[in-house]
Design a protein that fits this description.
The protein is mainly alpha-helical. 53% of the residues lie in helices and 9% in strands. Among the domains are: 66 residues, Fe,Mn superoxide dismutase (SOD) domain (Helix Hairpins, Orthogonal Bundle), CATH 1.10.287; 103 residues, minor pseudopilin epsh fold, CATH 3.55.40.20. The protein contains 10 helices and 3 strands; from the N terminus they run αααααααβββααα. Helix 2 packs antiparallel against helix 5, helix 6 packs across helix 7 and helix 6 packs across helix 10. It binds manganese (III) ion (MN3).
Length: 247
């Protein structure tokens, strides 16, 4: 093969590649006027993002609407999307409620256990959390009010202890009030670990990931934790405690 022939052949290959790429694009566009997706679409289930049970600005000025949009629509959605991607090909896992998965991680196949712990934990924790927030209820009621007084002396005693726990979390995580077989307790979990993994039922929690507060409170986590106590839906939290005592 002389040099001219070699160049002609290479040019021909290059042209053929370009042509086939162009015709593939043309044919995928021709069907419905839209470009075909490059790969299989991301799964949209079985787990889904629950709607916020109030408006995005319902917790202003304590939790700002922009943070609520990002936190719910982007961060929580990402946990759901990644959990759905993780359980593809694992129907024995995908059929279970997410709380059940994070409560019993050892039953999850090892290949996807870390993803379920992190993404499933994120989905479980946030799904719990949105329902415990709201304005307009000033204090716990019923059995929870009694249990908090018995354990922490008073509501303010409880708030002091939970604040210390939340401010003390190193890096990303959560501080919780949990219901355990031996009563109420305060604890924290790193990352998106759920108290359910230890057999503890969350009654109330504070998300101390920076995505929960950085837009409004910057590096001042104590200010955010203080604001959190103005958006606790004590009626919902009291109901969570009552539920935790059942079964
Ligand atoms: Mn969060």
């Amino acid at each position: 093969m002389n040099r001219r022939m070699a160049i002609k052949q290479m040019t021909g290959v290059a042209s053929a590649v370009l042509l086939s790429a162009a015709s593939a694009k043309a044919s995928s566009v021709a069907e419905n006027g839209q470009a075909a997706p490059a790969a299989a679409p991301a799964p949209t289930g079985p787990y889904t993002l629950p709607a916020l049970p109030y408006a995005y600005d319902a917790l202003e000025p304590y939790f700002d609407a922009e943070t609520m949009h990002l936190h719910h629509d982007k961060h929580h959605q990402a946990y759901v999307d990644k959990l759905n991607a993780a359980v593809v090909g694992h129907p024995e896992v995908a059929g279970k409620p997410v709380d059940e998965l994070v409560a019993n991680l050892s039953a999850v196949p090892e290949a996807i256990r870390k993803a379920v712990r992190n993404q499933g934990g994120g989905h479980a924790n946030h799904s719990f959390w949105w329902g415990t927030l709201g304005k307009g209820s000033a204090a716990p009621t019923g059995e929870l009010a009694k249990a908090i007084d018995a354990k922490f002396g008073s509501l303010s005693g409880f708030q002091e202890k939970l604040t210390a726990e939340a401010v003390g979390v190193f890096g990303s995580g959560w501080a919780w009030l949990v219901s355990t077989p031996s009563g109420l307790d305060i604890e924290s979990t790193p990352n998106q670990d759920s108290p359910l993994a230890a057999g503890h039922k969350p009654v109330l929690g504070i998300d101390v990931w920076e995505h929960a507060y950085y837009l409004k409170y910057k590096n001042k986590r104590p200010d955010y934790v203080k604001a959190y106590f103005s958006v606790v839906n004590w009626d919902a939290v009291s109901a969570k405690f009552a539920d935790s005592k059942k079964a």
